[in-house]
Each structure stands twice: as structure tokens, then as C-alpha cells.
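Take the subject:
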Amino acid sequence: MSEGISLEELQLAARNHGLPLEALRWDVTPVGLHYLLTHYDIPVVDTTSWRLEIDGLVERPLSISLDDLRARPAVEVVSTMECAGNGRVHVEPHVVSQPWLLEAVGTGRWRGAALAPLLEEVGVAAGAVEVLFEGLDRGVEGEEEQVYARSLPLGEAMRDDVLLAYDVNGAALPPQHGFPLRLLVPGWYGMTSVKWLARIRVLDRPFDGYQQRHSYRLRQEEGETGEPLSRIQVRALMVPPGIPEYLTRARVVQAGECVLEGRAWSGEAEVAGVDVSTDGGESWADAELEPDSLGRWAWRRWRYEWNAEPGEHELCCRARDDAGNVQPLESPWNVGGYANNAVQRVAVTVTE
């Protein structure tokens, strides 16, 4: 990096955490290892008084308790969630924000009530274009006092797999992951899945709040309108092989047969394949991609058998999907440091 990490960025890094990459070995990420990003403070919610309000451009506004939601038919989705800022520290020039390396990802087994039947129940009126989701977390950003709020186009909100999730991995959501209720939008970057959900409003025009108007947009200059972020870009990550040096995390591997493994995912289309390079991207070989056993929205395991010879090596992996998207070799730059899905590079020393 051309600039150091600021005190403000260290404060963000202390509050949030990523997935240790060795935890890619788990099909479903243990909750304590799943990446975490909280914009403001974690609210304390009393479920005896909490209710979800559904209103706006609807025929029959609804106020519903957590018990009522749990009594409805439950839907379970295994979904990989990734922060839109994952890989931010690898872009140049330096972008000041949460300093994610490559660990802002995790896969959960989410359970909750499907959103679409609730919207049908309240009767979305003619002229509706978006659905707004408001959390209980409050803060100041861009000199605006706000609750964290994001919207979805009505068509996306009506997908069968969009959930109002109250459980993850077989237990109630922990406070940091949105207890008692959060939105889950599979395939979209994590900023979409609003936590501590308190209100759903149906709108007749696009939402113009800070998190939609300013944040999470691809811009080359600060004053640009930019393009809004939505679907997760194709990516593969590797479990760092061998053992680490404590401070630098540099990897040491013994010579001989070494299995490289990791996960690949895409919000745009099914993962089509993963390539591995052991020479810094000069040449590539196909990895073995395991079947889609967890469902469309979960990552897929890949593996590659490498005959590790003594010396210094740079390992890389890249994924491609059925829509023709392929990870780039270099980090694309934008104002927010978003959607950087450049290939992972792992320096390895192979010893006799």
C-alpha cells in the first residue's frame, strides 16, 4: 500500500472481522468465523415489544411479531455472503474505509420466512417500484443522521429465496448478525441484507437515502453518480497451504505432493470452473470443481494436486462463471474500493 492504515481504519478493523481463510474448509461457516461488518452500533432489541412494520404503497399495512413470523412456513437457504469492499486494501491508490484483505466472506445456513408471501398478503398497490428495508442501527455518515436503510427493486424482493431470516446455522441470530431479524438477499453483496430489520416500506419511486445514493456505487470520481452495486462478482479463494510464519503469515510448505483447495462463488451465474497457477499467473491448469451440493447460492469446493518443488512460488486461483465472467489479474480501482475480485496471490516457500 502507498499509504499507512489510519487510526480511524484501525477502529473499524477492531469492530469488524473477516473469515480466517483456513476456515474455507467448512462447507457452512461456523457463526463465529463468518465475516462481520457493522456500520454503526449493535442495537439491543427487546423481542417482547419488537415488531416488524410493513407499510407504504400497500393495501393492508401489517405489524407482525417475531412469534408470528416463526409460526409461518419456514424456508432455509444456504448462501455465501461477501462484503462489497472485500479486497479493498489491494487497490491503488489507497481507499480509506474498512481495510478488508480477502476475508470478508462466509456461508451460512439461513432460515426464516419468505418475503414474497408477506408482500402478497399486504397487497402491493399499483405503481410500486421498490421495497425499502430499514434497520434499527443508527449513525451519522456523510454528515447525515440516519438509520441504515437499503432498497430492492420490487422484482428482486419478490424472489422465492429472499428471506426474513431469524436463524443461522440452526440457532437464533446472534446480536452482531442482526437479532432478531435480518433480510437475506442471496447472490447480492452483503450491504443489501439489512440487519436488525424493523420496517419494510413499499415505494412508488427509487429510494434516495445515503446508503443507496452515495454508498455502494462504482464511481471513478467522487462527484459521479456511478453505477449501483448489486450481484456478487465471480471469485475463488484458496486455503493458504502449509504453515504460517506468525507475524508475516508467509507460508511454508514441504516439498512433494500438496493438495491446494478452496471455494468459488458468483452471484451472477453458476460457477463454471476454477484455474490454478503455481507460477504467479504465467500458466494455468484446471482445478477439480466439486458438485453443487449446497444449492445455487452457496460456494463450491475446488481442489488441485500440486507437486511442490523446493523454492519460492506464487500461487494463484481464479474462477469463471456460466455468464462468461472471469476474475481479472489486476485490481480494478474505484472511489469506494468496491467489487475488487482480482485473483488471490499466495507467496509460498517450499522446503526439502
Summary: DSSP finds five helices and 22 strands in the chain. The mean pLDDT is 96. The chain has two domains: 7-228, 235-351. The first helix runs from residue 7 to 15.
